[in-house]
Amino acid sequence: MAESQAAAVSSSTLKIDTVSISETAETASAMAVTSVAAAIAAAARTGSEARVSKAALAAKLLSLSGVFAVRKPKGPTSAELLNRLKEKLLAAEMPSPEWTKRKKQTLKIGHGGTLDSAAQGVLVVGIGRGTKMLTSMLSGSKRYIAIGELGKATDTLDSTGKVTEEKPYDKITQEDIEGILQKFTGNIMQVPPLYSALKKDGQRLSTLMKRGEVVEAKPARPVTVYSISLQKFQPPFFTLDVECGGGFYIRSLVSDIGRELSSCASVLELTRTKQGPFTLEEHALPEDKWTIDDIAQCLEHCSSLLPAELALKKSKPEGTHEQVLSCEYITLNETKGEDDGIKTL
């Protein structure tokens, strides 16, 4: 009797457990379906928000307009650095063409005043309507810290070239250098280097030189040196602080100083510390700050540094349509008309 009752209870419990398991499975399945649906909906919302965000980012990029400065390191050419900046600005994925109406616009970006690949420092960049202001940056003043090396001449007039001549320098004193600097101050005539961005028959002199072609030196041309001082002299090295106008070559200056001292000299290191109102320490953006937001903030700040006649009015914000970007850069050389042009990237 007891065993029969126990069996009945056991049977009843088994049925209850079976029903519970079944109900639990159905509930879990329903919850899973609900969870998946919620996840899909959330993903859809996120995707939509991302597309809106990307469209807003594209609009903000195209609204950038003005002039700012970046910090150029040693190694890349000015054009290569500009390409790197462009790539960073366009790194954010733009909205898909299927999402909304297309609106084709062009992002213009350029630099004013080429720095040699071995040089570092301030590189002024124009974006949007700011590219039209770059010519004024070329004619404005620039400041450099240059380290020269006595007793060694190279074909490029700096440390990147082949040594073409060596002369003694042991009798040259600090007073000797300071005594000749006045000859290189004010309005003077200067022969530009053969390795330069100046052109002959549409080609850069430096390109022709690298091909081994015979290139005649450009005639001396008028340039301006506002100030020049000797900061340090530790033979064979000497450090100069130079403020000059557009079209001036520090490499030619150092070479001419060596020749004036009855020796020879070439540039070991070159840093542009100032161009126009932009200084290396205060205004030049390092590469980790090459973002749309940082540049927008920099443009806002830098607009107050420019003369009133060059200041740009704020651009009207673009709508949140998709921006199909085509990029161009404008590279202006030290001599207006020598190498001006727009290159499509």
From TrEMBL:
The record's section on InterPro entries has: PsdUridine_synth_cat_dom_sf, PsdUridine_synth_N, tRNA_psdUridine_synth_TruB
Name the keywords, alphabetized.
Acetylation, Cytoplasm, Isomerase, mRNA processing, Nucleus, tRNA processing
Subcellular location(s): the record lists: Cytoplasm, Cytosol; Nucleus
GO MF terms here are:
RNA binding; tRNA pseudouridine(55) synthase activity
Please write the reaction equations for the catalytic activity of this protein: a uridine in tRNA = a pseudouridine in tRNA; uridine(55) in tRNA = pseudouridine(55) in tRNA; a uridine in mRNA = a pseudouridine in mRNA
Give me the Gene Ontology terms describing cellular component. cytosol; nucleus
GO terms of biological process kind: mRNA processing; mRNA pseudouridine synthesis; tRNA modification
Domain called Pseudouridine synthase II N-terminal: residue spans: 101-250
- Which protein, by its recorded name, is this? Pseudouridylate synthase TRUB1
- Organism from which the protein derives: Dipodomys ordii (Ord's kangaroo rat)
